[in-house]
Amino acid sequence: MTQKIIATNKKAYHDFTIEETFDAGVVLEGCEVKSIRNGKITLKDSFARVKNNELWLFNCHINPYTQGNRYNPDPERDRKLLLKKQEIHRIIGKIEVKGYTLVPTKVYLSGQYVKIQLGLAKAKKNHDKREDLKNKAVKKEMDRALNQRA
Known about the structure:
two-stranded antiparallel sheet; seven-stranded antiparallel sheet; 9 strands; about 35% helix; alpha+beta; Small Protein B, Chain: A
């Protein structure tokens, strides 16, 4: 099955160390799927949380579909995520015990369905972020040097 990536959350990779990922379906209403297919979704400050043994996505902004009608849903509403019960219980255990958080890393189309990849993440400290930037700069310089040689 082909996957078409719609949006990625670069801020999640900058602010968090992602240790494990889960793919979840999303409960959407009305024209939200059409809007997502057009790329009108923002994951920047969004996160997932457990509520009543269900996973919910918060702060995910989906712009209203332009050709939609007056019944377009609220762009900032909370959306239910669909995962198997065993995965939800495993996530709950890790979040409560080890201090992890759930961050959406990307939104993609799998066939006709909209899926969200969630990352089980721990927050990075400032010195970790600086070290990542240094490593990225060193890698870039090495790539430049190799490309100039060839």
